[in-house]
Amino acid sequence: MTLQPLNQGCYYFDLPVNIGYINHEETGILIDAGIDAGTAKKVASILEKEEMPLTHLLVTHAHADHFGGAAWLQTHYNIMTLAPPFEGAVMQNPRLEPVYLFQGTEPPRVMRTKFLEAEPVRVDGKLREGRMDIGGINVQVLVLGGHSHAQVGIEVHGHLYAADSYFGREYLNKHKIPFMVDVKAGLHSLRKILKTTLKGSLPGHGSYETSFDDTVRYNIDWHKRLLGELEEIVAKNEKMTFEEATAAFCCKEGVELNDMPSWSLYRTAAGAYLQALVDDGQLQWMIEDNFLKVHHQESQSVR
């Protein structure tokens, strides 16, 4: 783990889940907190060694790998924590993540690990779209939903901390089907990023790039390809149960599921892609023989 400088007080910690840092005088802002206390402790240790302040934490979205270290930070630092209101509700009640991934049912123990359920944290303020002054630092908050319902990105001095609005190519090639809750919102967020004028951008999983448009377009093309392949799967069968469609989608993309946490994540993602096709009029939900099914509709895509 190293602290990488950009310019004008902007930095980031290069990690499997990147963490941003912004400094101006006595204000030090972390953007996300890593997956656990160990990660947060290492970040804080580096800042202390460099004699850099830590006064604020901005959490982009309420997935455990992005705020799992927040509880440790709050215990050891007088730190103000801000998050989007919807995401903040999950951060304060983190059991909600495995609960919603298990369709609202009390989740089994195997789904209540640090990877899906962080420790609860205090949320001191709200991140809303637009300009905000945080400790004397002017930041632009952008709503970038899709991967999470109310995810935000943070732009400072022309650098975008983009959270999981898009992914590095290596990440997409490894995971095949990215976790999404709203694919159409995700595509909107990607096009929104393309309209910005920036010096560079850092995804949550991937590398900082000054020329990031190609990576963002790669994500758009990836989502469109997955939508097309999933539609083709259902069309060949005319109608399928939700579980059949999910399994066939994973098999088509080379995803092998061997545990419940993985199954719950990929099932949710498959549901998001199916819902996007339903919204486009290409598929239709139906209940038949006590099963939730998707039925193929002949229609033109509006993607």
From TrEMBL:
UniProtKB keywords: Hydrolase
Organism: Salsuginibacillus halophilus
Keyword Manganese recorded: no
Family annotation (Gene3D superfamilies): Ribonuclease Z/Hydroxyacylglutathione hydrolase-like
A molecular function (GO) term: hydrolase activity
Metallo-beta-lactamase domain span: 16-205
Coiled coil in keyword set: no
Protein name in UniProt: Glyoxylase-like metal-dependent hydrolase (Beta-lactamase superfamily II)
InterPro entries per the UniProt record, alphabetical: Metallo-B-lactamas, NDM-1-like, RibonucZ/Hydroxyglut_hydro
